[in-house]
Amino acid sequence: MKKITILIAVIAGASITLGAYFLASQAGPQAASIQLNQSLTFWVDENGTGTAEWVYELPPSPLAGLMRLEIVGGTMNGVPVHGMGVENAKLKYSADVRSSYAKFGIEMENISCNITGLDEGETLKVTMNWRTPHFAYRKDNAWKILFQPIDNESYARESINATKNLQSTLSVASESSPLNYTSKESIIMPAGANIANENELLSLGIESINYGGGTTENTTTFTKQIEGRPTVVSETQALVTQQLITITEEDFLESSQFFPINYTGDSPAYGFDGSASWVATDMKFGRERDKYTVSLDGQEFNVTPYQLLYYSSKKVVNLAENSENQLLSGAQPISVLPPDNEIGNWSAVFKTLTKDNYVTTARNIRNQITSTGKAPGEINSSIGPLRPRDALFTFLRIISLHREHGELSDNIMFLPAPTDNLLNGGTEIPAKNAYFLLNTQSAITDTPQVNQIVSDIQEPSYSDKRVAEELNRWTYENITYKLVLGWFTSEEILNMGEGKCGDKVNVYLALTRTAGIPAKRVTGFIIFEQVTYPFTEIAGVTPDGRYIVGHAWTKVYVPPDGWVLADPTGNYFQTPAYENNIYSSVEETWQAVLASYETTYGELT
């Protein structure tokens, strides 16, 4: 894994919170480098569960000052800054890191976060601990650990854009200062394990990424023993300058090597329920596999998703009937043909299935596959048609929750697998867009005042596009622009009636998501040939000498157009005046929205 993306998630969070408004005059003329150190250790147990500790240290520097200020507040050249507070900062940093790992299909549970060094002159230190179930998984009777993005192309694009945003933040925080970054990552296997592909890992040598403009990243991988346990260690040195990077997405992916760690060890003791939990995690983050290695009645088999649909539906029925019947009816899993197509309804998203509802659905699927030998393409349920992948994801979640709590859930929220499309009135919508409807830490949906605003604007005859445009206009007209530095929720801004661009975005996201319109935050830097006060005090400079100022806007999903720009600060919809002057931008991902929800409010169940 290219670890530079994890640090960017946290640093970018600081610049976004202040709207990238860090007064350059505070930094002084010096161009001394900024140092950042990170260490990450995973301890892996015999069932593939990882226990992690992540330590992030930022010695005194203008960048440390920016991040400290967003937490505790204070003043910048006499301008008050509203700090988010330590507890909100813990949630925000936890969500940022959680989102970064979600892009690799890695879950984080039982997260704890501690922040120290909040006094000026101290080293800012963030320490995070968590548990990752199924950090290692079974494949072909062996264990495998793989840090690989679920979507390589999106990962490359987001990494490059995030690096440009980080460079822009550096230029605002401290003129000409580069960032030196060191990282050490250790993955400690269970006692008695042997690394099966050790020679392959050692042959990697130094993995290098040249971003252009002097920004580089070099990683060395080696093995060692820690407390008698085999360990793979990766050490990274990175330099981020403020010169323009030139790397393409293709070059980035070609330079990024994703090699697994394969190691020997006994089969897990968790049975089919544990296998269900692993596949549910895979599906939650959108990773699709042709086959899964699962435990059926004490034996390991490689099964297709449609075979797994049969056995998971059978397991749900067995649990409901308190049956001890084995899942296998012969020596080998049954054969299940795939459906001709998959059809599911967008209107089912986030609806509730009662226990009677989901057990009946499971029984029907089991019986249909038994009689036809083929998975259904459209599954009837009490909340509407479901795709087979969504039924599988639902059953796996039910089994996982039963494993955790010892009983079947009375109700479960329907969550779509974030792959392929759902139908909404005959129009296909990417299933992952459902997660752009969720509550987050800063954009709070379905509150009394948000519901009232949406109700006043939304008319039955209005299209989603019309509603999105009207809500954009409402936010522009009713939230007065004011350069109020600091972090605020949408509810706070609605009560204050004023705020900067990022605050208007929080309000707009709360409104559109409440209206049932998927929406995402976009943050970046806009190029200006000239700037006036107060932006003269907060502007950075591009490598070619142009001014850049941090900005936030949104994109909303409105069929049949797809994603369109909406900027409630300037009342722009679809086409902004600055369309050709965007220096860098990073779009919020559905994983980031989900991570913020689950970190702030708890797991979606």
Automatic annotation (TrEMBL):
Renumbered to this chain, the signal peptide range is none
Which SUPFAM superfamilies does this one have? Answer: Cysteine proteinases
Write down the superkingdom of origin.
Archaea
Please name the InterPro entries in this protein's record.
Papain-like_cys_pep_sf (IPR038765), Transglutaminase-like (IPR002931)
List each copy of the Transglutaminase-like domain by range: 493-570
Question: One Pfam match, by short name?
Answer: Transglut_core
The protein's name is Transglutaminase-like domain-containing protein
Organism, by scientific name, is candidate division MSBL1 archaeon SCGC-AAA261F17
